């Protein structure tokens, strides 16, 4: 490993960035989570999945949630989507407690979850129709959303004919079509290859910039979190607790050149320190110690051992 | 890390894939030509075995067909006797110096040769019924098809919705499935007498047996198929604002349709297996009457002809349904892109 | 092709539904007398009258339904038939189990068609001592066997009985698992055919009248339709004449053979073992007596047999099962 050059603190913000955060925090609170906790009983006894989670998300904010496996980030977003229950505390959307799933909180899943029997257009129309829009309105709006994600040409294709990235664009369009107050995204680009992933990240930022939407985005990719987020909620595991809420000092608009900027690297270093603290091995992977045996023959034309 | 991994490179021999590689590649699709060849072969092979047993005297032929009874009192022309008996009688005749019986190797009466069955197949369809109230074979078959159709339809009308509901709502599943699990082990034909008492002697009880034979399996299978629907699709629908009934009609049902369709095809096959017992109940009718009556008089070539007809009807129906399914569920093709 | 799918569906539904609806509607329409008959020469003979339309000529509405023998008794027991063709013994069995009937017509008695068939080497019942015999227990050929053993001075315990469904007896004998079987035609004939060298060692021809084959009618139907049943009986004797008339015999056999689906020649050979009774012979059989010559005597002996072998528990009132008036009234 090469020694990192000395980095500024991630807490250091340029004037423009500081100004942005001040304005952001003045905006109305869309999502408020207060002392949220979830316990469940398993064969091993009572497990605390989430413990005393507190945070606020402001309008048009982009929040990423990051943490090691087992920190309950998926549980958190599923609770917010209304797909899972919680056992203590409160989760409020526009001040109203979250009960069950509804179109106010749109969700994009890692596994696309497009309806395979519906065409791309009908997939996007689905939510609108569920919410009592007429077929013509739904169709008109669906086409607009498809245009936004650049898939107008594929309106009549079936999901199986699309690539992973295209599928996820449809899923985003489908969720946005309902014009939810908040868009919950559960590792949406986790299954994509690096290139598609980068494209989708920029694309998501484009969309976010152009419409009034608040996004809560789960990821385990540090670069992705820094690249996308205004603030990053860092969770730790066993039990899942908030470790830190980081304000990302990287100025907007973002681009991939920034990835080597001091702010970026500083934030990343901080995240790394939080998520991969030295000497703490928190998962089963750490138990596996491969024992390498050199299996090449002496005369084989292979690289020498260093 | 103390070492770099270097895989052992196989001593590179660039071999042309031999036929064993192309035919016996694990789980690899075959070329269209070899597929066709195999389909033909799958039918040809049993037929060839059957031909071998029928036409090659050294393969089996445990009997002798008498052509000349000679001096054996109970032999008659065209009679089938065990080879042992024939040998003993020939020996006795030789010792007594009387006329020797003549005959040639033959198979038992219950294994007719392919050409006999083919002939029976042809005559069965071309022979007009001798009685006024008699039926052509195709009319008998049509009657059987109707029994299956109505039994299967009745079963599906109740069984499919119930199965979907059981697969969707645990409360219904717990309420009905234990009893259905119990009932499906009860042999459907055992309800024959009850079915006759309630539904009369005509088609009613026969349809009822098909129904009983199909229904209970159907509920369980459909429920299971429904449960296999990816729950993420339901969750996605929920986050899009779908309500309970919409979830059922807009997600569950369309989502399971292709699998449901496949289930129904398999279940229809099962319904056919109940036909023979169903048609033995009440008045004799349909293809079963033909089979049992011909078997009673040991006209096995007719029996085999009828069995083959049932097989052909089943196969053709299934192929048609498969093609229809492919067309109906175009959206379900396996993804050709990542 | 501008036909919509739904109209095609409708078309096919109609095609499927019509015959079904028709067959369901028929019994309700006029409520003819419904008779179940099955594969026995004496009963297949009814086919002549059906084919020739003689019931219509006689002005009686009868509907004959073709069954497997056991299925016909089930249908009668379930109250779905006005009458059924059975042996006198089975009429008692069905009656003892709740479906009472009255035998208003004797079609025939078995005259050789019921057989005990011994495998090669078994030449008489005496050879069966200590051997195995395949019969369907409680059915007529069980009775035939006992009757024969008794005549040969043997007891049932002298042989080992193997319970075998009658229609499988040919295969049972061919398998070599038993030394003899008891069966009626066509099974007995098939056994002879299937096992060369096998011989009938005792047949119903050795005890004529052991098994009578009859038309057994529901008493309430007799009460309600006495005149019609009388006409049915009358038509029967027209059939008997047709069969016995040398000029028409072949035609009768042809009609009967077509009912069971075998060539006429093959069927003609089976008929010898069935003695179809002419009217005066039937009248004689309807006279009271204690021997097999009388249906009363025959039925009494079957009744004893059935009680002894626990086919049913209580002896039946034989007289109430027999009504000679329809035959004697002709």
Provide a brief overview of the structure.
With 306 residues, chain A is an alpha/beta fold.
Topology overview:
The complex is a heterotrimer of chains A (306), B (338) and C (330).
Chain A lengths: L14 H12 L2 E14 L2 E14 L3 E5 L6 H9 L6 E6 L2 E2 L7 E4 L11 H11 L4 H14 L15 H14 L4 E5 L7 H17 L3 E5 L3 H7 L2 E6 L4 E7 L14 H14 L31
Parallel strand pairs in A: 3-8, 3-9, 6-7, 7-8
Antiparallel strand pairs in A: 1-2, 1-4, 4-5, 9-10
Chain B lengths: L18 H5 L8 H24 L7 E6 L11 E3 H14 L5 E5 L7 H13 L10 H32 L1 H14 L8 H8 L3 H25 L3 H9 L4 H30 L1 H5 L6 H11 L3 H29 L10
Antiparallel strand pairs in B: 1-2, 1-3
Helix pairs in contact in B: 4-13, 5-6, 5-8, 5-10, 5-12, 6-8, 7-8, 8-10, 10-13, 12-13
Chain C lengths: L4 H26 L2 E5 L3 H4 L1 H7 L1 H4 L4 E5 L2 H9 L5 E5 H9 L5 E9 L4 E4 L13 E4 L4 H12 L8 E4 L5 H6 L5 E4 L3 H8 L4 E5 L8 E6 L1 H6 L1 H19 L1 H15 L3 H8 L2 E3 L2 H7 L9 H14 L16 H4 L2
Helix pairs in contact in C: 3-12, 6-15, 11-12, 12-13
Descriptive labels:
A: 306 residues; alpha/beta; Rossmann fold; four-stranded antiparallel beta sheet; 10 strands; B: 338 residues; mainly alpha; MetI-like fold; 4% strand
Description:
The complex is a heterotrimer of chains A (306), B (338) and C (330). Chain A has 306 residues and is of the alpha/beta class. In chain A, 32% of the residues lie in helices and 22% in strands. Chain A is built from eight helices and ten strands. In chain A, a hairpin with a 2-residue loop joins β4 and β5. In chain A, α3 (120-130) runs parallel beside α5. The mean pLDDT of chain A is 88. Chain B has helices spanning 19-23, 32-55, 83-96, 114-126, 137-168, 170-183, 192-199, 203-227, 231-239, 244-273, 275-279, 286-296, 300-328; strands at 63-68, 80-82, 102-106. Chain B has two domains: 63-106; 126-331, MetI-like (MetI-like fold). By secondary structure, chain B is mainly alpha-helical. Chain B has a three-stranded antiparallel β-sheet. Chain C is an alpha/beta fold. Chain C has two domains: 32-109 and 210-328, Periplasmic binding protein-like II (D-Maltodextrin-Binding Protein, domain 2, 3-Layer(aba) Sandwich), CATH 3.40.190.10; 115-206, D-Maltodextrin-Binding Protein, domain 2, CATH 3.40.190. Chain C is built from 16 helices and eleven strands. Chain C is globular. Chains B and C meet through β2, α5, α7 and α12 of B and α1, α3, α5, α9 and α12 of C.
């Amino acid at each position: 490993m090469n020694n990192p050059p000395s980095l500024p603190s991630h807490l250091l913000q340029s004037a423009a960035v500081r100004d942005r955060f001040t304005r952001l925090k003045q905006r109305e609170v869309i999502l408020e989570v207060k002392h949220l906790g979830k316990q469940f009983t398993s064969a091993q006894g009572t497990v605390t999945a989430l413990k005393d989670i507190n945070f606020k998300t402001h309008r048009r904010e982009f929040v990423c949630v990051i943490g090691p496996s087992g920190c309950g980030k998926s549980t958190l977003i599923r609770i917010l989507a209304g797909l899972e229950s919680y056992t203590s505390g409160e989760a409020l959307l526009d001040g109203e407690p979250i009960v069950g799933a509804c179109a106010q909180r749109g969700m994009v899943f890692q596994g696309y979850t497009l309806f395979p029997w519906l065409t791309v257009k009908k997939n996007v129309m689905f939510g609108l129709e569920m919410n009592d829009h007429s077929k013509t309105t739904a169709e008109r709006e669906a086409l607009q959303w498809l245009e936004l994600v650049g898939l107008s040409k594929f309106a009549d294709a079936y999901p199986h004919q699309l690539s992973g990235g295209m599928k996820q664009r449809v899923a985003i369009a489908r969720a946005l079509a309902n014009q939810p107050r908040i868009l919950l995204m559960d590792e949406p680009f986790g299954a994509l290859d690096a290139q598609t992933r980068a494209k989708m990240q920029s694309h998501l930022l484009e969309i976010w910039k152009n419409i009034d939407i608040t996004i809560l985005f789960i990821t385990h990719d540090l670069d992705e979190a820094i690249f996308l987020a205004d603030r990053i909620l860092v969770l730790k595991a066993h039990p899942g607790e908030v470790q830190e809420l980081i304000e990302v000092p990287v100025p907007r608009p973002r681009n991939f050149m920034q990835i080597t900027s001091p702010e970026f690297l500083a934030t990343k270093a901080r995240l790394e320190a939080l998520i991969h603290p030295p000497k703490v091995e928190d998962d089963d992977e750490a138990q596996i110690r491969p024992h390498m045996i050199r299996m090449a023959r002496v005369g084989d034309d292979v690289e020498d051992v260093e | 890390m103390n070492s770099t991994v270097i895989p052992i490179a196989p001593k590179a021999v660039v071999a042309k894939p031999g036929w064993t590689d192309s035919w016996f590649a694990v789980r690899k699709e075959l070329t269209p030509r070899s597929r066709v060849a195999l389909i033909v072969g799958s039918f040809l092979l049993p037929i060839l075995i059957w031909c071998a047993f029928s036409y090659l005297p050294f393969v089996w032929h445990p009997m002798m067909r008498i052509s000349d009874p000679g001096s054996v009192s109970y032999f008659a022309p065209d009679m089938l006797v065990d080879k042992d008996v024939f040998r003993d009688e020939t020996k006795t005749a030789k010792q007594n110096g009387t006329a020797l019986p003549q005959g040639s190797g033959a198979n038992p009466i219950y294994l007719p040769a392919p050409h006999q069955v083919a002939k029976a197949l042809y005559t069965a369809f071309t022979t007009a019924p001798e009685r006024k109230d008699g039926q052509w074979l195709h009319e008998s078959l049509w009657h059987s098809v109707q029994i299956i159709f109505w039994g299967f339809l009745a079963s599906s009308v109740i069984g499919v919705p119930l199965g979907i509901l059981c697969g969707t709502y645990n409360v219904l599943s717990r309420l009905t499935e234990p009893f259905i699990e119990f009932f499906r082990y009860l042999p459907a034909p055992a309800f024959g007498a009850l079915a006759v008492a309630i539904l009369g002697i005509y088609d009613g009880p026969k349809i009822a047996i098909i129904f009983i034979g199909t229904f209970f399996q159907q509920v369980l299978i459909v429920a299971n198929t429904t449960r296999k629907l990816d729950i993420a699709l339901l969750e996605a629908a929920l986050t899009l604002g779908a309500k309970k009934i919409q979830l059922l009609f807009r997600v569950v049902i369309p989502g399971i349709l292709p699998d449901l369709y496949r289930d129904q095809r398999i279940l229809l096959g099962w319904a056919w297996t109940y036909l023979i017992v169903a048609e033995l109940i009440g008045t004799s009718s349909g293809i079963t009457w033909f089979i049992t009556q011909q078997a009673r008089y040991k006209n096995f070539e007719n029996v085999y002809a009828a069995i083959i007809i049932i097989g052909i009807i089943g196969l053709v129906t299934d192929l048609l349904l498969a093609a229809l399914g492919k067309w109906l569920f175009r959206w379900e093709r396996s993804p050709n892109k990542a | 092709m501008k036909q919509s799918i739904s109209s095609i569906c409708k078309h096919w539904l109609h095609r499927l539904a019509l015959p079904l609806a028709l067959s369901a509607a028929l019994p309700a329409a006029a409520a003819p007398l419904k008779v179940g008959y099955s594969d026995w020469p004496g009963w297949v003979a009814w086919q002549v009258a059906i084919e020739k339309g003689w019931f219509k000529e006689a002005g009686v509405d009868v509907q004959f339904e073709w069954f497997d023998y056991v299925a016909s008794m089930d249908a009668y027991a379930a109250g779905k038939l006005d009458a059924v063709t059975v042996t006198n013994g089975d009429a008692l069995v069905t009656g003892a189990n709740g479906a009472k009937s009255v035998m208003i017509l004797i079609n025939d008695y078995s005259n050789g068609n019921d057989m005990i068939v011994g495998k090669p080497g078994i030449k008489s019942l005496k050879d069966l001592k200590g051997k195995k015999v395949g019969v369907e227990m409680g059915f007529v050929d069980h009775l035939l066997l006992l009757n024969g053993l008794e005549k040969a001075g043997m007891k049932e315990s002298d042989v080992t009985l193997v319970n075998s469904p009658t229609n499988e007896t040919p295969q049972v004998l061919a398998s070599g698992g038993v030394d003899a079987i008891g069966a009626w035609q066509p099974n007995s004939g098939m056994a002879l055919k299937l096992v060369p060298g096998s011989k009938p060692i005792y047949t119903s021809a050795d005890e004529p009248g052991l098994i009578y084959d009859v038309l057994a009618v529901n008493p309430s139907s007799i009460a309600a339709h006495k005149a019609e049943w009388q006409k049915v009986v009358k038509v029967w004797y027209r059939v008997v004449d047709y069969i016995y008339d040398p000029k028409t015999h072949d035609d009768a056999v042809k009609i009967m053979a077509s009912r069971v689906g075998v060539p006429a020649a093959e069927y003609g050979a089976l008929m010898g073992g069935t003695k179809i009774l002419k009217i005066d012979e039937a009248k004689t059989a309807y006279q009271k007596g204690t021997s097999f010559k009388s249906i009363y005597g025959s039925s009494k002996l079957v009744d004893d047999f059935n009680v002894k072998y626990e086919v049913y528990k209580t002896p039946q009132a034989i007289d109430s099962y027999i009504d000679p008036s329809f035959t004697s009234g002709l």
